[in-house]
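Morning!

This is the sequence you dropped in the shared folder:
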Amino acid sequence: MPTPSRPKLDHTARTVLIAAALVVTISMGVRQAFGVFLTPVVQELGIGREVFGFAIALQNLLFGLIQPFIGMIADRFGPSRVVVAGTVAYVAGLVFAASTADPTGLLVTLGIAVGIGLAGTSFVVVLGAVGRVVPEARRPQCFALVTAGGSLGMFAVVPGAYAMLDAFGWRDAILLLALVASTMIAFGFALDGSRRRDRLSATAGSPSPAQPAGAVSLSQAMTEARGSGSFWLLSLGFGVCGFQITFIGTHLPAYVGDVGVAGWVAAWALGLIGACNIAGAYIIGSLGSRYRSRNVLVVVYALRTAFVLAVVLLPPSPAVILAFAACFGFTWLGTIPLTSSLVARIFGPRYLSTLYGIVFLSHQVGAFLGAWGGGYIYDLLGSYDAVWMAMAGLSAVAAIIHLPISDRPVVHAAAKAT
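The structure's back. Tokens below.
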């Protein structure tokens, strides 16, 4: 059922929203470009695809494992400090990756350092800031705008990274990406508008008008989430999303070459994913503002099942690859505003960075399996066919497990007492 008219955003909310979108645009844009480096890095260092895939897998796993703790730090000390520290780690990882000469260096730089940097500049941190300054009715839509920033970054950065790779080689191209990533510091400071609002609201003795009542303590919020079946179903579904998009982002360029399609198609396919998801993330997130996010998620995963089956069953060609990229790209990050807004709706926005960080951990476990598992299966079987079929099956399962999710807000202990 459609929701009533939505309230307008004030100046603080708009500032935080723009800053969050810019951070995500840069962070996710650079991250999605790593796949174009697989072939030249593997060839120069004399390693298998599994090694490069494991570095990206480690990056994603570490990104997820520390995300709940990063969320707690952001909830406690504010998002700006977290974004600045994350940017420093991100840039350092890229700079040292450009000079690595062995697999260990690749794991430490592109895997560990960049993984830590991503955790500090991620959706978890910035959506927590946005969630505290926008009204509940606008959250899915606003989260979708931030998510679209990640898609814009993918559209802008991936083809650019491919062009830099072609012009300067992979080492100099990574250094240029490090320069791009360093600009996140400039936008991170504006995110503390949400924290300033919280302090003003606390001084006035009343909650922020954009923040309804929620758990009164982190331990209470964690207890409520732990006892919620819907929370764990959301987490499992999000894990499937992580598996899918990380496998595609890491291995699609190599897959395109394997099936005899020109390399430029892979770069433009990744860029097309980002371009289509600029519109897709906003449209899907807006649908979450009008209809139940749970139901929209069911449709998203069902569509992904069909798209993956199509790319597996149809003869490979530039048209098929680009059509798949456009269709799958429309749903690429659409799960993020829907999943995060469900967490905020059920548990309140106060500890959104922490709780969504836990859900995001599941996403990154799936991402680890998608990046490393894709390389492992290829080295074992000589093709990606089994991984594509696994993606289709998991997507169908994800659609089914979202059906029983309840989106009713929890009744907090404090509210029960009154």
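Headline: Residues 8 and 389 are 45 Å apart (CA to CA).

More detail when I'm at my desk.
O.
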